[in-house]
Amino acid sequence: MTNAKIYDIKPAIASNAHITQPIYQNMYQRSIAEPDVFWAEQATLFLNWQKPWHTVMDCDYSRGHIRWFEGGLLNVSENCLDRHLAERSDQVAIIWEGDDPTRDKKITYRELHQQVCQFANVLKAQGVSKGDCVCIYLPMIAEAAVVMLACTRIGSVHSIVFGGFSAEALKDRILDSNCQYVVCADIGYRGGKTTVIKANVDQAALGCPNLKSVIVIKNSDTDVAWFNGRDIWYHVAMQNASDHCPAVAMAAEDPLFILYTSGSTGKPKGVLHSTGGYLLYAAMTHKYVFDYHDGDIYWCTADIGWITGHSYMIYGPLCNGATTVLFEGVPTYPEADRFWRIIDKHQINIFYTAPTAIRALMAQGNDFVTRTNRSSLRILGSVGEPINPEAWEWYYHVVGDARCPVVDTWWQTETGGIMITPLPGAMALKPGSASLPFFGVKPEILDNQGNSLQGIAEGVLALSRSWPGQARSIYGDHQRFIDTYFKSYAGYYFTGDGVRRDEDGYYWITGRVDDVINVSGHRMGTAEIESALVLHTHVAEAAVVGYPHDIKGQGIYAFVTLNAGVQASEQLSKELVNLVRQEIGAIASPDIIQWTPALPKTRSGKIMRRILRKVAANELNGLGDTSTLADPSVVDNIIAHRVNK
Ligand code: WTA
C-alpha cells in the first residue's frame, strides 16, 4: 500500500516534547552505533543504583544468553517509591477508580511506600524470602500495586495470573512456577457483576500440595470458605505489620517476575524478566513514547494480569514518579461513555488502551464520546493488536478531537516494553502503522530462508539486537526459550509476527504468522484450546483457528470431529464451551463450533491449518494447493457446512 494517509507532527506537541525529530535521529543512530555507551547513559539517567554495573551487555542468542548491567545492584520498589519521597511524597501515585462510578480512591507516594513496606513485612512473616515465587491472582484493586511492589522490595518473584483465568489455569501456573504463596481477593467486581476469586484459589489449591499460605484481600462482605492455618486476611496481617522494611539489594540480573503467555505449541510458558534491564526499559519507553512530563495524569486501561499492566500501569509510570490510574471496571459500564467520563473526572492527559475497546466503543456511536469534554487529553496510545485505520481515525478524530497524536505501540510479553512506535514529537503518523523502532531496536524483515530484506519489503519480523527489556528465559525450561525464539532464524530473536516496511521505512505489523491468535488483544494458543476441547469424552479431534471479527479482532473458530456414533447437538456445543471456560477461562470460549466428520490432513497426518483458516475467514477462492491432502473431499464437506456468524 502506498499513499497511506499521513498526519504531520504537531508543532504544539513537538515544541514541548522530550524527543523531537532531530533528537530521535541522533539518539537512534547512537543507540545502534554505540549501544554500550548509550545504554549506560540511560541507565544512569533513569535509575538509582546501589552499586554500578561492570558490564553493560553480554549476549549470545545461540545460547539464549542475555545479560544487562551485570555487577549492578538496585531495588525496583526503591526506584518506584523511596527515591520519590523527598520531592513528591504528597503527590498521588495511584488513582483507583472503582467499577461502581461512585467509588474511587487516591494513594500518595508516601502512603504507597508505607503500605508496600508493611506488606513486604507480612510476606516475610509468612516465610517468603528472596527468590521465592509469589502468585498474585487479583482483580483490579489498588492493593494489586502494593503486592507487586512488596514482592520486589524483598526480592521475591511475582507471577501474576489474570483474574479471568479459571481455577484449572491458575493451578497449572502455580505448579509450573512452584509458588508456595498466593495473594488473592475474596471476590472481584466487573461491569456490575461479581467475579469469583477466592473460590477458584481454593479449587486450584486442591491440586497444589506445596501451597503454604493464601493471603486474602477483603473486597466485599461476602463470606468465603476459610482454611485455618493456610488462609490469612490481608487487612488483619497489615494491622500488625511494621512500615519499616529495607529494600533488598538485587543484582541487575536477578529475576523480577514471571508472566505466562501463550505460544504456538504446548502449555503457556512462564516468560521470565529480570530486574535492572526491564525496569530501565519500562521507564524509558514510558517517558519517551507517551512524552510523559512531571504532573501528567496517566491512564493505561490494561489489566495487571497482562504485560501491559506490568510495564505501563505499574513499573514504568511509578519509576518515573507519575500519577497512574487503575480502573477496576469495563468501558461500557454503567454506560458506553465510562472511559470518557473517567478522563474528565480525573483530568487524564495520557490515555493508553486497546483497539478492541476502541472498536467496541466506536460501534456504540459518537454521542457517548461527544457529550464528554476530554480537553485534558494530550496523547492517545494503542496496544495489543493491529489497529485498523478506521478505528485509528475514529480514535484520533472523535476521541482526540484531532489534537492528540495516536501512538500505535508494537511489542510483546517477551520484549518487556514498547519496540516499534511513533514518538509523538518526532514522527508523522500513518493510521495503522506502528511506524519506527524505539532506541536500540533493530527490526529485520526476513524471508522464508532467513535472508534479511532491505527497503520496501514484507516478511517475518525479527530483531537482531538485544535490548534491556528482553525476556531472559522461560521459567524452568531454558531450552524451550532457545527453541522458540532463537532457532528459527540463527542470530535473530524471532517475534512470531509478520510485517511490511513501506517507502518511508515505516513498519506495518500484519499479525501472527504462527498458531497464536489474538482475541480482543488477548494472546491465545490455538493448541491450548484444542487440548481443552479434546478432553470431552465425545470429542475425537479438534482444530482451532482465528477468523476476522469486527470487535474482537479475531474470533475463535473450532472444527470438531466427534467420536463414531455420537450425535452433534446444541447441548454438546454448550458442554464444549463450558469445558474451555473451565480449563482456561471465558476469554478462550469458541465463538463458532463447526462439526465435521474429518479434518483436512496431509498424507503424513498433519492438519492443514492454512485451509481451515481460509474457510473460517470465508476466503473460499484462495484455498491454494489441496493436492497434498490425504482426502481432498474433506475440504468440500467443511466448506459446505461452514458456519456464518
Ligand atoms: C500483537 C502485548 C500490531 C502482536 C503487548 C504481538 C500488536 C502480540 C501490537 C503480543 C500493535 C501487540 N500492532 N500487533 N501495536 N501490539 N500486537 O504478548 O501479534 O500479549 O506479537 O503483548 O500482540 O501480545 P502480548
TrEMBL record:
Gene Ontology CC annotation, any one: cytosol
Function: Catalyzes the conversion of acetate into acetyl-CoA (AcCoA), an essential intermediate at the junction of anabolic and catabolic pathways. AcsA undergoes a two-step reaction. In the first half reaction, AcsA combines acetate with ATP to form acetyl-adenylate (AcAMP) intermediate. In the second half reaction, it can then transfer the acetyl group from AcAMP to the sulfhydryl group of CoA, forming the product AcCoA.
Sequence positions that bind Mg(2+): V534, H536, V539
Acetyl-coenzyme A synthetase N-terminal domain location: 24-80
Lineage of source species: Bacteria, Pseudomonadati, Pseudomonadota, Gammaproteobacteria, Methylococcales
Every AMP-dependent synthetase/ligase domain range: 82-462
GO molecular function annotation: acetate-CoA ligase activity; AMP binding; ATP binding; metal ion binding
Binding site residues for ATP: G384, E385, P386, D408, T409, W410, W411, Q412, T413, D497, R512, R523
Gene (name only): acs
Family: Belongs to the ATP-dependent AMP-binding enzyme family.
GO biological process terms on file: acetyl-CoA biosynthetic process from acetate
Sites where the protein binds CoA: R190, G191, G192, K193, T308, S520, R581
E.C. numbers: 6.2.1.1
Keyword set, alphabetical order: Acetylation, ATP-binding, Ligase, Magnesium, Metal-binding, Nucleotide-binding
Domain AMP-binding enzyme C-terminal: 528-606
Post-translational modification summary for this protein: Acetylated. Deacetylation by the SIR2-homolog deacetylase activates the enzyme.
Catalytic activity: acetate + ATP + CoA = acetyl-CoA + AMP + diphosphate
Cofactor field: Mg(2+)
Residue numbers of N6-acetyllysine PTMs: K606
Group of enzyme by EC: ligase
Name under which the protein is recorded: Acetyl-coenzyme A synthetase
